[in-house]
Structures are given as C-alpha cells and as structure tokens.
From TrEMBL:
Pfam families registered for this protein in UniProt: ADH_N, ADH_zinc_N
This enzyme's EC code(s): 1.6.5.5
Domain Enoyl reductase (ER): 11-323
Descriptive protein name: NADPH2:quinone reductase
Keywords: NADP, Oxidoreductase
GO cellular component terms given for this protein: cytosol
Domain of life: Bacteria
Provenance organism: Kribbella italica
A GO term for molecular function: mRNA 3'-UTR binding
SMART domains the UniProt entry points to: PKS_ER (SM00829)
Length: 326
C-alpha cells in the first residue's frame, strides 16, 4: 500500500502523521502520479495550523500542492500525458489528493512535463515557488527589460527562481541573503550585486549601485521587516510586490507619494485560470530555453514531514525543503 501524510486535526506539526493509504484509480480527466518528491511550502504550514484565510480543507486531508514523479495511470479523456511520462505537479487551485504521498490523484491540468535532465527533487520545487516568482515579477510587478530589481530574500525557495527569471528577462538584479551560504547561492545565480541583510546599513550602497536612480521593482519576502526601507529605495514610479509578511509594521505613506510608487500584494490563490496558465507556460518556456541553476534543497524522508514543517518555521531559508517519497 502507498504511504502518505494524513492530517486529522489542525494544529502543530505533530498532526502530520504517516499512514498507509488505499490504492486509487483516476477518474475522467484525472491522472495517477507515482510521487518521488514533494515540495514543502510555507502555505502548507499555515493550512496545517488551521484558520488560513485562503484555504481550509475538510478533515482528514493529505497536504501538498507541489511534487514530481511518473504517471502511472490516466483516466478517460486524458491525452496530454501518458503512462511513463516524467512530470512535475503544480496543484494549487486544482483538484488533487495531496502531494505528501507516494500516490497522487489530480486533475490533468496540474501535471506538466519534467525535462529529462532535471531530477525529481528539482521538479518538486517548481509549482508554488516558480509560479509565485513569475507572478511577482511579470503579472504584478510589470517588469521590463533594463529595469533594476531588488530581491529581498534571494536565497530562499522563491528567491532563487525570482533571480533567474528576472535575469532572463533582461533585468539587473540586486539580491540579499543573511548567511555566507546564502550569499554564495545568490552569487551563483548571476545577481549583479549581492548584499548581506544582516549587516547594518547594507542598503546604503543601493543609490550608488543604481547610479542614483533607485530600484524599479522590489520583490519582498518579509514585508513587516523591510517595507519601509524598500519604499525609500524606489525609483520614480517604482513598485514593491509583497510576497511574504509575518506581522504588522509602521509605514510612512509619504515615501510613496514623493515617488508616485506602488506597493502591491500577491497571493497565488487569486490567480485566474488564464493567469495560472500564463505563469506555468512562462516557467516551462524558461526551463526549455535556459540552463536551470538548481535551487539547493534540504531533503527529508516522507515520514519526517513534521520536522520539515518545524524547521521551515524556525530556520533561515536557503533553498527548498523537499520530502523524499520514493
């Protein structure tokens, strides 16, 4: 029998329990995937705790929206994929049984080809992080070639694809990280400038780095700590796209008025079907046209999903956290 994580009550990470699951068959329009790796995202932890505004699944449920593996069976009316295909799964907003399991039933719209040169662990990190990065840069941030982007938190799971997609679009990227390992990772991605956000005054060099013009677009992973400083760095009609925040803050709106600048939020739960298709198509185009610089991963056995959730909340982000489901 396949194994999977089952949540029978909302709460702390300990509610993530590994159990034997029944074998299932795909229905019309569905695909059965043998999952080799599952991505762990911050939203997974909010949902598990209960009370998440965007999604409150009925109990019991198996968590996870991102994964990668091999198609084992297809239902009627499915022609986009075939048995034996290597795929990655991006199931946010799409009917699916949860990727924290060795078997996944999902709508065919959630399944996408995984190029042969990429590993299952890499594929498990594409869905939420890469779609978030694409939406932040292009759908909400309206990035144009030649602009300067500050990725505040460039060493994390969303930061890695944000840097790569921005560079591919012709932007100059300034990336921040808080550890030597993280700084090395951002450097390896090709960011033009790398700043240590734990160093006092680390943003003081930004005016010089931009020739006095300022930042056109900030992709912000921790707005409650950085938004006030971000606004002061913006060029005329600059934009901040808030990807993540963990609390409230004091903010001076006059900094936006002087620059006629914008602060824009983003959440993948708001994607229309057309926007989601465009984002995933953009990610697929990047994977086909560019050499992926792999996001570093911390890999856990499937049965240790609770530890993955604990460490996601308590340890600095360098890359992705992945469950090995094989």
């Amino acid at each position: 029998m396949p194994r999977g994580i089952v949540v029978r009550e909302f709460g702390a990470p300990g509610v993530l329990v590994a159990e034997d699951l029944p074998d299932r068959e795909p229905g019309p329009g569905e695909v059965l995937v043998r999952v080799h790796a599952a991505g762990v995202n911050p939203a997974d932890t909010y949902i598990r705790a209960g009370g998440y505004a965007f999604f409150h699944p009925p109990l019991p449920y198996t968590p996870g929206f991102d994964g990668a593996g091999v198609v084992e069976a297809v239902g009627a009316e499915v022609s986009a994929v075939a048995v034996g295909d290597r795929v990655f799964v991006a199931a946010l907003g799409v009917p699916a049984s949860g990727t924290y399991a060795q078997q996944l039933i999902c709508d065919v719209a959630a399944v996408h080809p995984l190029p042969g040169h990429l590993t299952f662990h890499q594929g498990a990190g594409f869905g939420v992080p890469w779609t978030t990065a694409y939406r932040a840069l292009f759908q909400r941030g309206e990035l144009e070639a030649g602009e300067t982007v500050l990725v505040h938190g460039a060493s994390g799971g969303v930061g890695h694809p944000t840097v790569q997609l921005a560079i591919a679009a012709g932007a100059t990227v300034i990336g921040t990280a808080g550890t030597e390992e993280g700084l090395d990772q951002v450097r390896s991605l090709g960011a033009a400038h790398i700043l240590n956000h734990r160093t006092p005054g680390y943003l003081d060099t930004v005016p010089e780095l931009t020739g006095g013009r300022g930042i056109d677009l900030v992709v912000e992973m921790l707005a409650d700590q950085n938004l006030e400083a971000d606004a002061l760095l913006l060029a005329q009609r600059g934009r901040v796209v808030v990807v993540g925040s963990r609390g409230s803050l004091t903010f001076t709106p006059r900094t936006l008025m002087a620059r006629e600048a914008d602060v824009r939020g983003t959440a993948l739960w708001n994607l229309t079907p057309a926007e989601k298709h465009a984002a995933l198509s953009g990610v697929s185009d990047f994977l086909a046209a560019h050499q992926l610089i792999a996001t570093p991963a911390t890999v856990y056995p499937l049965d240790e999903a609770a530890r993955a959730h604990e460490e996601l909340a308590t340890q600095p982000a360098v890359g992705k956290r992945i469950l090995n489901c094989s």
